[in-house]
Specification:
This protein has one helix and eleven strands. It is mainly β. InterPro entries: YjdM (IPR004624), YjdM_C (IPR013988), YjdM_N (IPR013987).
Length: about 110
Amino acid sequence: MSTLPPCPQCQSEFTYEDGALYVCPECAHEWPIKPAEAEEDSGKVWRDAAGNILQDGDTVTVIKDLKLKGGGGVVKIGTKVKNIRLVDGDHDIDCKIDGFGQMGLKTEFVKKV
């Protein structure tokens, strides 16, 4: 017996897989094997030090003095960082901090405002 779903348009039970799609031979309807929503939900979730979910464009506050490598100074506790961008890698946040420029931060050292 087939475990493939019936066609959502004509309810035909003769559907088959063709790459990343299901195809109905009776009405020629095609639909994705995995819904787009399931692919988005499987992505990584970034959380701040308090456990709040972070998103691109959020504003965060630094919760610890951070010494910059290369003798660039210190980012003080309470520094507000606007319009963050979340990335995969060693540092989770790409941002610009006034007076310091472009840099990467880890989510464990910030709190969502």
